[in-house]
Design a protein that fits this description.
Layout (H helix, E strand, L loop, with lengths): L9 H7 L10 H6 L6 E6 L3 E6 L7 E3 L7 H12 L3 E5 L1 H11 L3 E5 L5 E5 H6 L6 H13 L2 E6 L8 H10 L10 H10 L7 E7 L2 E12 L2 E9 L6 H13 L5 E3 L7 H8 L5 E3 L2 E5 L1
Parallel strand pairs: 3-4, 10-11
Antiparallel strand pairs: 1-2, 2-3, 4-13, 5-13, 6-11, 6-12, 7-8, 8-9, 9-10
């Protein structure tokens, strides 16, 4: 039986997904987009949890079941409930598990559009070497031009970012996709900031918030940047908030996951310019 995703599921789901480095399995990501991405969940193999996506007019999709002792039994329960379904956001190990169970009954594909960019935290804090020369220059110019404050965000002051959220989406019409409404997702993060165990930061210039970011701890040694927005009238504000958020909040982490580029060329160039340590390649499985 399909059920709505609520905060009551958070602790149990996270206990099953502990150590998962793919951003698609972040409960915060799933919760914030549960409505616009049409997420539900169902119990499988006893107490296991399968997150399913039910886009109108399209084939259902399912994430790899979490907390299931018998993966094949869990997948078969999903197939019985939904009929034809693709299994998506698979790691290589998940893909191999399904291949072992289903052999030629399932085919796999992958695209770099959905691969997470994972970076070395000390490298993005220090920005040393020729490869980061441009980032250092942008930050130096920003620091020389503006008298700014770094603001740690919490549930009490998260509303400070509302004017920039409104401004950013007014300036980027058509940015939303049929499967993801980022403005709605940001609103969900703001309303449930403490409940989702989030952290955030903003850059303030002359009383105005010109950039903000929201993240979380994904694993014991990996931070996860969920949202990052800036006012491009302030050149250098993006590399600045990226560096300062890591330095002030995540310096104890080894790695940071900054999610995928969704196949957007501009976003891909920006993410590549920070020189990822590696990519979290993801696969999709289609039954034949």
């Amino acid at each position: 039986m399909l059920k709505d995703i609520t905060l009551d599921l958070k602790d149990e789901y996270r206990s099953y997904a502990r150590g998962m480095t793919l951003s698609g399995y972040s409960f915060s990501n799933i919760f914030m987009s549960r409505d616009c991405t049409h997420y539900k969940y169902m119990r499988v193999d006893g107490n296991g949890i399968a997150i399913v996506c039910l886009p109108p007019g399209k084939k259902p999709m399912c994430l790899f079941p979490m907390g299931a002792e018998n993966v094949k039994r869990a997948v078969e329960e999903v197939r019985k409930e939904l009929g034809e379904v693709d299994i998506v956001y698979l790691t290589y190990c998940m893909k191999q598990t399904l291949k072992r169970y289903y052999g030629e009954q399932i085919q796999f594909s992958s695209t770099m559009d959905n691969a997470d960019y994972v970076y070395d935290v000390p490298a993005l804090i220090d920005l040393q070497g020729k490869q980061y020369h441009g980032k250092r220059n942008f930050i130096n110019r920003f620091e020389n031009r503006y008298d700014y404050d770094y603001v740690a965000l919490d549930a009490d002051n998260i509303s400070l970012i509302e004017p920039l959220v409104e401004k950013w989406f007014e300036e980027h019409p058509g940015y939303e996709s049929p499967m993801f409404n980022e403005k709605t997702a940001i609103s969900e993060l703001m309303k449930n900031f403490d409940a989702l165990d989030l952290s955030g930061a903003a850059i303030r210039v002359e009383g105005e918030i010109v950039a903000f970011t929201i993240g979380e701890q994904l694993t014991d040694d990996m931070a996860h940047i969920i949202i990052e927005k800036g006012d491009t009238r302030y050149p250098g504000v993006y590399p600045l908030i990226n560096r300062d958020f890591l330095k002030n909040r995540w310096s104890g982490m080894k790695l940071v996951n900054r999610e995928e580029d969704m196949g957007l060329e501009g976003l891909r160039k920006a993410k590549q310019s920070y020189h990822p340590a590696f990519m979290n390649v993801v696969y999709s499985g289609q039954f034949v």
